[in-house]
Amino acid sequence: MNKQATDITQIDKNFAAQKADENGFVYSNVQCAPFSLEGLPWFLENKQAFYRLPKSLTAKDVNEGALTLCNHTSGVCVRFRSDSPELMLRAKLAYGCDMNHMPRAGSCGFDSYRKLQGSELVYNKTLQPNPGQADACALIGINPEKRLCEWLINFPLYGGVESVEIGLKEGSSLLPPFSRKVEDPVLFYGSSITQGGCASRPGNAYTSMLCRKVDAPQINLGFSGSGRGEPAVARAIAGLKLSAFVMDYDHNAPSPEHLQNTHEVFFRIIRDALPELPVIFLSKCDFYGTEPDVRRRKIIHSTYENAVKAGDRNVYFVDGSILFGNKMRDACTVDGCHPNDLGFYRMYKHTLPILAQALKNAAERNRTQ
Amino acid sequence: MNKQATDITQIDKNFAAQKADENGFVYSNVQCAPFSLEGLPWFLENKQAFYRLPKSLTAKDVNEGALTLCNHTSGVCVRFRSDSPELMLRAKLAYGCDMNHMPRAGSCGFDSYRKLQGSELVYNKTLQPNPGQADACALIGINPEKRLCEWLINFPLYGGVESVEIGLKEGSSLLPPFSRKVEDPVLFYGSSITQGGCASRPGNAYTSMLCRKVDAPQINLGFSGSGRGEPAVARAIAGLKLSAFVMDYDHNAPSPEHLQNTHEVFFRIIRDALPELPVIFLSKCDFYGTEPDVRRRKIIHSTYENAVKAGDRNVYFVDGSILFGNKMRDACTVDGCHPNDLGFYRMYKHTLPILAQALKNAAERNRTQ
């Protein structure tokens, strides 16, 4: 038996304390404590890959588009506390999408939020990659008063990462974040709009706005063009501990018939496993009143109605056609479909009361049970 | 004396009637009637170059940044009427900027608005160039009912064009647009924010939103990082016939001292030439309450106050710090400075009442004089 103390840094280099660089920053890998990495429920099962579904799912279970898009880090964020006056972010970027209708700041960039004691998370800085950039290293936060504060850093919406490190000024504190008000994640399943196309930066996707406001972790299973409602995805979701589930794949069902054949089935798989989980059904926000638009909304509403009729007290319906509001509704998208930051803000504003009520109702039921 | 009728198409190929292409579209150059090209007050003087200042101005008069940015077509649009069921746009793109914090749809793209009788202009389509694209040809409008309607097509905010043609289905009508409610242009002078950074598409810049709403032509003299308030620019503006002038270069004055030395001088040049022109002073929207921010606002307010004290009835002041509103103000920019579409919508919302009132007061004075 080897009596020497094991040097964990020889086995796992993530644990190695790094020396300060020439600018006085010490870098630490976000995969290790005290960082709290959110939005990757199968992270350990997937051997610490930044991948949004269980790697055990294959093209037999889920369309290949969704499996590829799993490499995008939409909804992923890291949280921690520090008093460092400046924060750097160093990352190896991968799978980036440079799209014509979305800035790289949103598709493959990061943004940060800072929370001072007694206040809310407030936007701080954006890291905006250049075309084709694979290695990023830039300032991601400023905290000139050197106050001990909580940080939340959002990952790319339409790109992925191989590694991410946070650089803090040598001698600064690095502590775990405070616990969330709502402990279990809100999970969103859906389309490109769910994934965050076309927010100008990650924190402005409607899913991120909602989770910041209700103070819950986010799991984003938005798969651009590829949210098809396969039962295997529903079974994966059904195995998680969640605070709420937002079902938002109307845009991506290839036809109303496809939606009809999958929507209630998808919901039932989750409901059977998680009878008390609040489930919010969204119909699509890019609603123009066409016959297929109306038919799709009716299908989604039927899933909701059938649940209510069966005595389900934990279902909610949001009519997507109201999400962009009335005033200058035509300013809400970049291309007639994908919300810009105005569209996402309005989606947030109209969905928040329902999500907040759903979480409140669930918490009250838990207390009285 | 030559008795043969002159064939204008031999002299100016812009007048040559083109044949329909394989898809049945006939293309016409927007530089010729019946198209109405707006936003280029020195177009003829500049020999039909898409350039936003008089070409007679040189680096002796204006900083070189602004002179280069003159090639960007911010604020330029073409208007016309047609009953074509589809519209194509064919353009030679030039001087494009591919920025990290702005989608190409906004920087070097076009968007279109359609007005059916009795209603307002409503967003229709976006042309979104690929990286480095020099020749663009894509659908820019759909009008499936084939109604005779008015079109407005916005040009790139951070890019330029060498030529633009509109393709209409063979046999469709092509007519001049209706006249504007407000005949003379509203001119905006300022910074990157004035130029439209970082709107997701041209029509979502705050200047475009305002001009659509009050139904006035727009002249955009926003020069990214280069709105320095030179007297030569003021003299050029002072030679135009305008309905209102929005002075918005706080962001770009290199220091409060520079602002102090140029702001009132700039205004006086214009006021001396155009004593009745409504002038709206804006202080910067990316206001964080720092000492320089406060000092700058005070300088701008002094220009306004001095004018009021001297009996000027045509000046207005907008405190930039209110432009992003209160609720989730931190969601209004992509990088802490440049508005996204939410920020631009709020700038529009808070500036509109002032601009509308200024135009109304001016119209009433004209009537009673």
Structural summary, described in words:
The structure is a homodimer of 369-residue chains. By secondary structure, chain A is of the alpha/beta class. Helices cover 27% and strands 22% of the residues of chain A. Chain A has 9 helices and 14 strands. Chain A has helices spanning 8-11, 64-69, 104-107, 192-195, 206-214, 231-238, 256-273, 291-309, 341-368, and strands spanning 25-29, 36-38, 77-82, 86-94, 110-115, 122-127, 135-142, 149-154, 160-169, 186-190, 218-222, 244-248, 279-282, 315-318. In chain A, helix 8 (291-309) links the parallel strand 13 and strand 14. Chains A and B meet through helix 3, strand 6 and helix 9 of A and helix 3, strand 6 and helix 9 of B.
Counting DSSP E segments of at least 2 residues, the number of strands of chain A comes to 14
Main CATH class of the largest domain in chain A: Alpha Beta
How would you sum up the global shape of chain A?
globular
Secondary-structure element series of chain A: HEEHEEHEEEEEEHHEHEHEHEH
Number of domains of chain A: 2
Uncertain stretches of 5 or more adjacent residues of chain A: none
Distance between the termini of chain A: 52 Å
Helical fraction of chain A equals 25-40%
Task: Give me the Rg of chain A, rounded.
Answer: 21 Å
- Specify the number of helices of chain A: 9
Oligomeric state of the chains in view: homodimer
Strand content range of chain A: 15-25%
Average pLDDT metric of chain A: 95
Biggest interface pair, counts: A-B, 39 and 39 residues
- In the CATH hierarchy, what is the architecture of the largest domain in chain A at level 2? 3-Layer(aba) Sandwich
Going by helix content, strand content and strand pairing, the class of chain A is alpha/beta
CATH superfamily of the largest domain in chain A: SGNH hydrolase
Largest sheet of chain A: 5 strands, antiparallel
- Strand order within the widest sheet of chain A? 2-3-8-5-6
